[in-house]
Specification:
Shape: globular
InterPro entries: WD40/YVTN_repeat-like_dom_sf (IPR015943)
Keywords: Signal
Largest sheet: 6 strands, antiparallel
Radius of gyration: 27 Å
Distance between the termini: 64 Å
Protein name: SH3 domain-containing protein
CATH topology of the largest domain: Neuraminidase
CATH architecture of the largest domain: 6 Propeller
CATH class of the largest domain: Mainly Beta
Structural class: mainly beta
Helix content: under 10%
Length: 457
């Protein structure tokens, strides 16, 4: 596979009939290729002329990716993505469940948005799913599904894997597990995954498998809340803070949807190797058409991109989780383990509905403030609070009251007053840490009254 270049050549070797098609219908001209693997187009022809002489078409999933500072075009079958190792998912929008993995298959059932499903099997475009509250099964395109943040997913092996009787490399292999088999682990250790395959319980090499942990930007720990993740190392996660977290203690993930793991490298040594983590720059589910053009013979052209409506077009005031985690995070908070609605402060304050895309709150400009979300639903940013999940904010602190409480407790006037931390406490209590210019003072209040009392150590 060669790198993908963004250079487009001028029109080449167009026949008179091709020029006629282009000149009379220039607005709908499309690039034509000698082959779908061609790096550069060999000209342009009007869409009408190509449709008139259409011979056949075929669908192909591909991804423009980046690895080792170079760009590569990889087929969908060469990559594994987070949604392909998910187990429980939801529909993004209302959609029709199909009887077969074909767009022209008969309908099984109309599904509403947010319908909860279990994935039974996947390929690079389709998923066979089952409704969680019924036995209804069918097929849906993967790009119409979204993973749940409380889903630990499945494990999928990158290569053929031996299932052994015991958790040691010298143990007898009882069977072989074909590549890209989805399994639910019974136990994960540093060296082996205990699992059941075809009714046989055994042990397989951990390094052969990929899981949702390999795609995680954030992971949820019951005591540490949401944590930024660097990578998975066998049975543990390594966080951005350098902590080592056992996978057995993790209850959920926010994935990096721009990450792919290579499962079928190119036959040559050129390009990303097996297990390489690549950044997905642009996904394409193309319907390639083959038409007969005078003077050219059979040519290929991109008839339709099935993912065009799914392409991410972030507004100037939005940022992805993956991009956000490359910044210095001043403060971050989420509602709870089952929700990834939350706040982050990083050269501005941002809110998220899905844990994937963060929208800046203009009120706070480019400033950093401590953020917190109370279990009762109150969101805090610095000296402001929100009761509608960050849509609007209002002040909740009277600084004269804070100064008076500190002066009464310590018999000195604070030099400055700056909130450095906000903590949510049980029984509808909230605690703030205030920098006074010489020390940090804790004050506590009820969320509903905000009458502050100094908490002395």
């Amino acid at each position: 596979m060669r790198p993908v270049f963004s250079i487009l050549l001028p029109l080449l070797f167009l026949t008179p009939s091709s020029w006629a098609a282009l000149s009379t219908d220039a607005g709908s001209a499309v690039a034509i290729f000698r082959d779908k693997r061609s790096l550069f187009p060999s000209g342009q022809v009007s869409r009408n002329a190509l449709e008139t002489k259409l011979l056949r078409s075929e669908t192909e999933i591909s991804y423009r990716t980046s690895w080792d500072r170079k760009e590569y075009l990889l087929l969908g079958a060469q990559l594994l993505r987070d949604i392909q190792v998910a187990r429980f998912v939801e529909t993004k929008t209302p959609i029709t469940l199909l009887s077969l993995n074909r767009s022209d298959a008969s309908a099984v059932k109309n599904l509403a948005a947010k319908t909860s499903l279990e994935i039974l099997s996947v390929d690079d475009y389709w998923a066979r799913v089952k409704e969680r509250n019924s036995t209804t099964q069918g097929w849906l395109p993967l790009h119409n599904l979204q993973s749940r943040h409380d889903d630990l997913g499945v494990y999928s092996n990158l290569i053929e894997t031996a299932l052994r009787k015991e958790a040691k490399i010298s143990a007898k292999a009882v069977t072989q597990i074909p590549p890209l088999t989805r399994v639910i682990p019974l136990e994960v250790t540093k060296s082996f995954i205990k699992l059941q395959y075809n009714g046989i319980i055994g042990y397989a090499d951990t390094t052969h498998f990929v899981s949702r942990a390999d795609f995680a930007s954030l992971a949820y720990h019951p005591k540490k809340n949401w944590m930024a993740v660097l990578y998975r190392n066998n049975d543990v996660l390594i966080t951005q803070k350098g902590e080592t977290i056992p996978l057995s203690e993790v209850l959920g993930y926010v994935p990096n949807t721009h990450r792919g793991i290579v499962v079928k490298p190119e036959s040559s040594f050129y390009g990303p190797p097996l297990r390489a983590r690549v950044e997905i720059l642009k996904p394409e589910a193309l319907i390639w058409a083959i038409s007969a053009v005078d003077g050219h013979g059979e040519v290929w052209w991109k008839r339709k991109n099935l993912l065009i409506d799914e392409s991410e077009k972030n507004a100037p005031d939005t940022v992805s989780t993956d991009a956000l985690l490359k910044r210095d995070i001043y403060s971050i908070a989420f509602e709870n383990k089952n929700s990834v609605k939350g706040l982050v402060s990083s050269k501005g304050v941002y809110r998220t509905e899905d844990g994937l895309t963060w929208t800046q709150i203009p009120l706070f400009g480019k400033m950093n403030f401590p953020v917190s979300i109370h279990p009762n639903g109150t969101w805090f940013v610095g000296s402001y609070k929100s009761t509608n999940q960050g849509k609007t904010f209002e002040p909740f602190i009277r600084w004269d009251n804070i100064a008076e409480a500190i002066e009464s407790a310590y018999h000195r006037n604070p030099k400055i007053l700056r909130i450095t931390q906000i903590e949510s406490l049980p029984n509808a209590q909230v605690q703030i840490h205030v920098d006074t210019g010489g020390s940090s003072v804790k004050l506590r209040s009820s969320v509903n009254s905000f009458n502050w009392n100094v908490v002395k150590n």
